[in-house]
Amino acid sequence: MEIERKYLVNKILWQEMRNPVNASFIQQAYISMDPKCTVRIRIIDDKARITIKGETQGISREEFEYSVPLKDGLEIMRMAGTPVIMKRRYVIPYLGYKWEIDEFYGDNDGLLIAEVELKAETEQPEWPEWIDKEVTGDPRYFNLQLAINPINNWQ
Q1: DSSP assignment letter at 142
Q2: Running DSSP on this structure, what letter comes out for residue 94?
Q3: Which entry of 30, 66, 105, 141 is annotated as an active-site residue?
Q4: What would the pLDDT profile of 12-63 be if each residue is shown by its tens digit?
Q5: Is the four-CA dihedral 118, 40, 63, 151 of positive or negative sign?
Q6: Angle at 145 between CA 141 and CA 146, to 5 degrees
Q7: Count of beta carbons in the 10 Å neighbourhood of residue 130
Q8: In angstroms, rounded to a whole number, what is the distance separating the alpha carbons of residues 63 and 39?
Q9: Residue 41 pairs with which residues in a beta bridge?
Q10: Rounded CA gap, 26 and 48, in Å?
Q11: What is the pLDDT of residues 51-108, one digit of tens each?
């Protein structure tokens, strides 16, 4: 079960503290866009993973993730039904939580989103100083929506 909250990151404060050495480059695209069963292919540096996610209930949903050979992952990505999202992910530990900060490129260039995985929906982790606001329930910031309707298209 995946339980997570999403936040927008303050670009100025983030630039002052980010460590470019401690990051992975991610490309991802979606094979199925059905909200009841989303399927994505993701290439992280030189490894491929396929992820199946169930329908979101509150801030939780079932998630199944499997490794696939890189060659297969690249071919699956070419068959995907969405444009490829490109981002660099940084992992920052803060007060007992692992924060993942995604710095987007391409049509979502400039967008910075932080995610934190929780053990229960009721958890409210203390925000690091570089967090601006929570966007957990805003569908515009779901990765699938960013692939379909990137921020460069927003009014």
Answers
A1: S
A2: E
A3: 30
A4: 999 888 776 679 999 999 999 998 999 999 999 999 999 999 998 889 999 9
A5: positive
A6: 70
A7: 22
A8: 10
A9: 29, 50
A10: 10
A11: 999 998 889 999 999 999 999 999 999 999 999 999 999 999 999 999 999 999 999 9
Task: Write out the two tokens for 39.
Answer: 């399927």
For the chain, list the domains and their CATH numbers: 2-150 (2.40.320.10)
CB 85 within 8 A of CB 44: no
Which amino acid would we find at residue 18? Answer: R
Q: Two tokens at 151?
A: 């921020």
Residue written as token pair 């927003």: 154
CA angle (44, 56, 24) in 5-degree steps: 15
Question: Whole-prediction pTM value?
Answer: 0.92
DSSP, residue by residue, 61-125:
E-EEEEEE-HHHHHHHHHH-SSPPEEEEEEEEEETTEEEEEEEE-GGGTT-EEEEEE-SSTT--P
Contact 89, 100 (CB under 8 A): yes
DSSP code of residue 56: -
> Quick check: is 97 catalytic?
no
Burial letters 16-44, b for 16+ CB under 10 A, else e: eebeeeebeebbbbbbebeeeebbbbbbe
Task: Tokens for 76, please give them.
Answer: 């699956």
Q: What sign does the CA torsion over 61, 62, 66, 72 have?
A: negative
